[in-house]
Every structure is written in C-alpha cells, then in structure tokens.
C-alpha cells in the first residue's frame, strides 16, 4: 500500500484506488491524471483488507475498486462491495471489472456501487463518468470547482462534452464516418443532428468534396423535387434556366436530408429509386445522370410510427436505416451542461466584447438541474441572450431568471385557491421510463445488452421503446 500526493488545489477530493495489480493501478491513476490535466491526490490499496483499514482512518470522496481484488473482504462480490460502501461513508464508489464479467458488475451495483467501468480503463471516459456521477449525486467537491468534465473537455468536430454518452457518440462517429453506407440520425430537436452529419462528412473519405444539406420540412412540397434533383428550363412556370439540384451538387460528397420524414410520399418513391440506382433525372427531362453521393438523413420523429401512420415508406426506411446514430438529449448528460454553458459564455462574450467571470454556484446548480426540453440549442440561446442583456460579471440565478423567457412562456398560469406547496411537475410514465433506460445505457458506455441485463429486461424491449419515444416527445 502506497500513497501519492499532488497539488492541493488540483483535486479537492481524495481518491482511493484498489487493485491487487499495482502496475495496473498506477496506470489507471496516471491515465485519470492525464485526462484531468492535474496530479490528483490518489491513495493505493492492493487488497480489500488494506482498503478497509484506510477507509477507517481517513475520508475519501471517490473509491475505485477492482472487483477481483476484494475477494479477501468477502467470498461474494455483492457482500464485499456492500462492506466497502458502508466503510466509504457516502463516497462515490466505482467498480472496475473485465468486460466479460457482467454479473459481477451487476452484483456490485446492487450492493451500492454507483457505477461500473470496464477494463482496460480510458482516462478520459473515467474522468467524464466521475464528473457525471458527482453532478448527479450532488457531490461536485469530488473533482473540485474547475476540474472533472471541464478538464477532460472533448471538443469533437463541433460537439462539446465529455460525458460517457458523448464519448460513445464520438466513437460511433469515428467508426461510421469511414463507410459510404447511408446513416440515419435520430434525436430530439436541438441535440445537434446537423452537427453530427457534418462531423461524419469531415471525418470521412469525402471530406474534400461538397457537403450539401437540404431541410425537407422548410421547402414547399411542390418545389421539393426540383430542389433535390434539379430542373430544366421551361419545365414549369418560373423555371427560367437549367439548375442542378442538391443531389447533383453533392456529387462525390455527402447529401444531408434533414427532417426526411416530412418528404411527400410520391417524392419518397423517387428518392428510393435514386438510392437503388444511383441515378437521377432533373424535373422536365428524360436524360439519366449518374450521381455518387453518401446519403445522411435525420429526423426528430419516430420513423416506425410514421410508417404505421403511412407517412413514411417502409422500404425507404430500411434503405436509409443502415447505420443508425441516436443523439442523447441534454437532460441525460447533466455533466455536460456546465461544459457547454462555459463554452457558449466565452464565445458570446468575445463576440459582444464583454467580460464575464463565470457562473455562481447557485446559477450552476440551476442550469444543471434543468430539464432542457430544447436541449443544447435552448441552452445556447439562453447564454447568448444573457450576454446581450447584461454587461458582465458573474452569472447569477437572478440573471438566469431574467433571460429564461422559454420557462416563463411555458409556465402555467397562477392558480388562486386552493394553495398547494410548490412541487416539480410529475413527468409522464413514458418519460420516467425513458430516463431510467437511457441512464442505464449511458452507465454501461452505450452497451444496450449490458444495460438490459442490469434492468432485467431484454435488449429488444429497449430497441422497441426507443422507437416510440421520439414521436411521443414530438407530440408532447
């Protein structure tokens, strides 16, 4: 057992790493320190008994335990972790285990561990997970005022965030970008579907070619075909010249169809033919033009519900739904809220030539606790509005309240008698169920099978429920 001490102001909490493999323990500590850009105060224990002795003598804010190293505390993993949790007296407890030992990880979480991390450990992912848990469980002291997710900030191709959900998204984009297969992006409004599409283009082999985006919900239906496939002069009134459409403009590059579910059914059949043949005809001509594009589409609606309502062709859906990517809503990654808020504050302050001194503690708590129905876009608009409204200084709760017009606009009208105590509105059952399932998926790094096992449901149930949530959110 050894102890190392870093700078006192780098990590205000104290961390205990338990691992019988001293080399592995040190690599984990170094990886975490590198991700945090600090030298945290870390104590090492090489057995469960050593860890128990240390926990009796001093207080720790974070305990990271390799499950195989706790066998001397109790024969059963659940009993060993339970004893450790009791000795830790409220510390955040993370269990480390080989990726194949899912049952042991579930036993650890049943015994009171806050999360499970698969080995080998990624420092950035571990730092993000600790920061997320600290925010979720009301322990911001674990990583100090200016460390944690901020220090492990991930700025990836237009995205900002270091939570485990975002780390998984970055990994997905990196894998999917290299392919030429169609991508189907889903997610609530304001989650960054357009940013995701551009990231896929920039990270892929077509990055030196054009990225052409077309919003299927913003173009009148009678003009949509010419916007997508082009038109020849004289094809209809107002067609004064030959014009290339979005597909032709994107030849060799990427075509992004945003809100693809809003496309007229008759045009959907032509889009399907284009995807099958790789050829188009401009409106008003018979000539066939071969086009080579990668198609990325996005929707904030539930495509399966649109198919059931005969608003979306099933054969088109399966032609497009080759590589699916789902963007998590902001409420499911609370550790990213302040990362984003500081990022937007710095940018808009420069733009408006003002000086702000960050966020007060109360303001930060208020932002982190919000539900953000408009997701990142809503947070971005709020910060920009506040920068314009105020001259500078520290952002306070009063300033937030003055700028938060969305909350005032959606707040219910005041009711006279009878007076009741002010309580947070009860969320619909499907919304609460969604939070539980998505939190479990994030806890297991995006692994749906492991999340399903932890929740004691089948993976197919998670897939089916995910398909239904987007439409429910869109319809309120």
From TrEMBL:
Matching InterPro entries: AAA+_ATPase, AAA_lid_NorR, CheY-like_superfamily, Homeodomain-like_sf, HTH_Fis, P-loop_NTPase, Sig_transdc_resp-reg_receiver, Sigma_54_int
Instruction: List the keywords (alphabetical).
Output: Activator, ATP-binding, DNA-binding, Nucleotide-binding, Phosphoprotein, Transcription, Transcription regulation, Two-component regulatory system
Residues annotated as carrying 4-aspartylphosphate in the record are 66
- Superkingdom of the source species: Bacteria
Q: What is this protein called?
A: Sigma 54-interacting transcriptional regulator
Which positions fall inside the Sigma-54 factor interaction domain? 159-388
Q: Which Pfam families match?
A: AAA_lid_14, HTH_8, Sigma54_activat
Q: Could you tell me which residue ranges the Response regulatory domain spans?
A: 14-134
Record's keyword annotation contains Membrane: no
